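Open question from group meeting: does this chain pack into something compact, or does most of it stay loose? Before anyone orders reagents, we agreed to write out a predicted structure and look at it together. Recording both the input and the output here so the notebook holds the full record.
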Amino acid sequence: MTCLSHSSSKVSPMSHVDLPDFVSRHIGPTDDDVATMLDVLGVASKDALVQRAIPGGIKAAAALDLQAAASEPAVIAELRAKAEQNTVLTSMIGLGYYGTHTPSVVRRNILENPAWYTAYTPYQPEISQGRLEALLNFQTVVSDLTGLPTAGSSLLDEATAVAEAMTLMRRSSKAAADAVLVVDAQVLPQSIAVAQTRALPLDIDVVVADLRGVTDAAGLRAVAGERDVFGVVVQYPAADGSITDWSTLAEVTHDAGALLTAAADLLALTLLTPPAEWGADIAVGTSQRFGVPMGFGGPHAGYLSVRNGLERTMPGRLVGVSLDADGQPAYRLALQTREQHIRREKATSNICTAQVLLAVMASMYAVWHGPTGLKRIAQDVHGKAVGLAEALAAAGVEITSDAYFDTVTAIVPGRADAVVAAALERGINVWRVDADHVSVSVDETTSDAELAAVAAAFGVNAPVAGTGEPSWNPALLRTSSYLAHPVFSSHHSETAMLRYLRSLADRDYALDRGMIPLGSCTMKLNATTEMESVTWPEFANLHPFAPSEQTVGIRSLIADLEQWLCDITGYDAVSLQPNAGSQGELAGLLAIHAYHEARGESARNICLIPASAHGTNAASAVMAGLKVVVVKTAASGEIDMDDLKGKIKQHGEQLAAIMVTYPSTHGVFEDTISELCSLVHEAGGQVYVDGANLNALVGLAQPGKFGGDVSHLNLHKTFCIPHGGGGPGVGPIGVRSHLAPYLPGHPLAQELDTETGPVSAAPYGSASILPISWAYVRLMGGAGLTKATETAILSANYIAKRLGSHFPVLYAGEDGLVAHECILDLRGLTKESGVTVDDVAKRLIDYGFHAPTMSFPVAGTLMVEPTESESLDELDRFCDAMIAIRAEIQDVLDGKVTAEDSALRHAPHTAVSLTHEWDHPYTRAEAAYPAGVDPLRKYWAPVRRIDGAYGDRNLICSCPSPEAFED
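Structure tokens returned:
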């Protein structure tokens, strides 16, 4: 977490000519290409370009001094050495993390397949149909197992899902404004802690109590301290393994005008009565044990499902079914597709994307096993737990509950430490609850030998696994069916599953097909070598709460990465806990809030946010208990400094922070950044520099040195963790020393004892994918990272130059240069021709491209970010396509075709559409193979343009039956 005392070997950085082969493989343009691009720009060198583009006042004083870059074999050897420092024992800790068998066909064809892990969030649904179908499968699994009709397409983890449920219940309940949240004491400890962290700045009081004896309204008010209650959270099964019939509590909760959330185990729900059937309004949890390794804490797809009436207030993403232009069913994101960018400070959550890749894995685990297979696994797990419990009981060891699924908590007065030590000697980690209790959780990977070993640690005979038929209260035995849709019974042979996964991947467009030029999203190369260690068991099979002496290697890797990020950004300390950029934003703002509180300046609650900022900034500020005040944007695209000075003068004594993206969201290096930081600091505020655009700064400028107090650093953008179709992400924060005491802590990690609670379920967030960024930094070194940044700036300016005479470039710096991205302004063309930015985006599909970022940060524009990874050939292919589209728009302007009859308006064109009766004024060839499209690499969109409004009006969010569209 802190880099202040961490040391690492330093070697003089290599010159660019000495860089290893990997750098040239990561960076697309060759030296000859660079010369060509510079010639187009009329600039003598990349160094001259950078000197002109970046304000002199923020440039780093010296070259980025990191350990010299290593070769790919050397980096793999270093990772192997770190992996070997970990000791992977059998985990029976539980607490939301379990051993699981990832089906090989899923691991190879999804987790290790760039067609899945290099895809972007499916905001362009016509070219995302494969992963949207997989996410619809995920939603169906969650909805069927919980019994609640609408499920989202994943959240970040179980603990943050509990926190999201808390705020959902708060805004949906009619209880008094000062009503409290009541959480059962047997909810997972990390979930309680994250909920408390999120509740504090929102002035929500969280009461933790034993709710098993609450049977009436008086009892609920008593545990709530005689206050109103807006929401209740229970665990099902509980942290100690016990299963409780919560139906009476649900009735009491509803009578009090409150809502009830069940944090439920999906595998247990194949045997247990679904939460909806006993009265839960919301269900949350994790899908980790559906084939996703523990990975020292993540990434794992959390889930959230709701009863009817709550679906339009859900956080995160929701996949729905709509119709395309031919009236055929098609998938899209529904309702709140980009809620944060639209509603900003009025957004109900700051979640932007979540854990799509892991949700896809979990959904395919369910597809692979089907309902019968899942039930068989659950019965096997339960049978093992029964066998252990019976062996303990036979030897006189009492257990805390006679109703359990996979976790048995034994009462061992004064012997807990001895039992834990005895299990450890036998290669097994169990959980010490306290001095008198030990809990043991079994899973699908638990063997008979391991059961015998853990029994021996208690001093009892080897268990005999039971049949797995539950013997608990019949009211809690599941009788309803689940996963009846044919997709869950059609792909149980490897041949069928392999072809299903291939068919889905073929419907998508990812980086393995071509450039995804999304501004602000930095879709760069995710090299195979960087990805290689993710599935190694030494990293993948670690429980996040395993003893620290067993996790030396991953902790060493984490410490390295923290130090390198400090060196890169100029900050003094880094926390890798936030498992998304949104969580990094929140963690940084919470640190600022806590810092002001500690200084007795709790009145500082104003957060200044430029009008051009990412929408998540405003949503995160509200979640951190701050009030958003918007700062205007000047005509040049920069922050309006006069307006900023006025706002600082107006709110000086209440000013907590400013959130500023640098380079700006408009893709400009603003030369006023140093003045801005000084003005805010002079007023007593803190400067939050959003790290979304860090790919334009690495090796050239350091936010922690030019005025930033805190930044989040999207590892899934600048540091090569793949986007995975909308997650996983990692959003660590870097801070200056005065904010270090307020970095996220964790109740189950003694080394993270800070003044602030956790923002994620696991101490180090999505730890199992941190080796990707570690490898990227080692492979590039300081000089390689700097070269990458220079090339990203060069590529963006090259595109801006080539396209500037066809589409106005909306903003540029004083020298006419952009940063790492540029905004193409289509508003004038739209006004004159009727051709919209949507038309251009969909037509780009016919040319074989994912569209740039649409209408953000300015409506009616396209924001283009090429990154350093794309070759000159690919940059030119994109520019040629845009120029050809401009010619198609000119045909509309010249009256040769109307916008309504143009190829632009009817794009994308599917192969099937070419076989229909043709009454368009352009040819089939012009539709499918426009200028510059190579027939041998043609990408065919699987559906026509999708009707979003129809999907929102007719919400279908689980696998539909064929009859659903007969009309």
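Observations to bring back to the group:
Residues 356-394 form the longest helix (39 residues).
Residues 5-15 have pLDDT under 50 and may be disordered.
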